[in-house]
Design brief:
With 84 residues, the protein is mainly alpha-helical. The chain is built from three helices and no strands.
């Protein structure tokens, strides 16, 4: 039973490291795409979503980004409407 629990712990650590490396790489590429031509608006949330599989801080930032982008979209959509 001891071997099974240590294998489970090893798997969880390896999974966490793999998700961190892949998510951080995608997020870094997204940040670079802010300055280079490319779809940073798509890549940054994708990196945060990958990181959010294991890390609460990434889920927090992803929710914050979604809320801000929704507010910006709503503002942009209603900017031509007469206020009343």
């Amino acid at each position: 039973m001891m071997i099974k629990s240590s294998l489970h712990l090893t798997y969880r650590i390896a999974r966490r490291i793999a998700i961190f490396v892949i998510g951080a790489t995608v997020l870094l590429i997204g940040v670079l795409l802010v300055f280079l031509p490319g779809p940073a608006v798509v890549v940054i949330p994708t990196g945060l979503a990958i990181l959010g599989l294991e890390f609460a801080w990434a889920r927090h930032w992803l929710h914050k980004l979604k809320d801000k982008s929704k507010a910006a979209f709503d503002y942009w959509q209603n900017r031509g409407s007469p206020s009343g």
